[in-house]
Design goal:
Number of helices: 0
Number of strands: 11
Shape: globular
Low-confidence stretches: none
Distance between the termini: 40 Å
Largest sheet: 7 strands, mixed
Radius of gyration: 13 Å
Order of helices and strands: EEEEEEEEEEE
Strand content: over 45%
């Protein structure tokens, strides 16, 4: 079992930056893949970025080159550094975690943090 708590959302102007944090409680954090997703009203939840157990990463094409996902296993935290933000990045951002030993997040979810990018 793992609990995930997101923070770092807020209101920023287009072109600005935010860093989101996903802090985990529970065991075996280093052996879980973690992902960031986002969702806007009426739309499906979208995978933004993921980081595997071996620290390899994957990004949605819409954020590649602007967002960076990283993890600090000692702090049980995954970060999402978001630069050059655009109004279309506005969404609730969620992190998810995998079952221990698997590289497929989505088993556990946080409550989300709102990111709003003004024009």
């Amino acid at each position: 079992q793992v609990r995930l708590v997101e923070s770092g959302g807020g209101l920023v102007q287009a072109g600005g930056s935010l860093r989101l944090s996903c802090v985990a409680s529970g065991n075996s954090f280093s052996r879980r893949a973690i992902a960031w997703h986002r969702q806007t009203p009426g739309a499906q939840r979208e995978l933004v970025a993921s980081i595997r157990i071996d620290h390899s990463t994957n990004y949605a094409s819409s954020v590649k080159g602007r967002f960076t996902i990283s993890r600090d296993n000692a702090e049980k935290t995954v970060y999402l550094q978001m630069n050059s933000l655009k109004p279309e990045d506005t969404a609730v951002y969620y992190c998810s975690g995998s079952v221990v030993g698997f590289d497929t997040p989505g088993q556990y979810w946080g409550q989300g943090t709102q990111v709003t990018v003004s024009p």
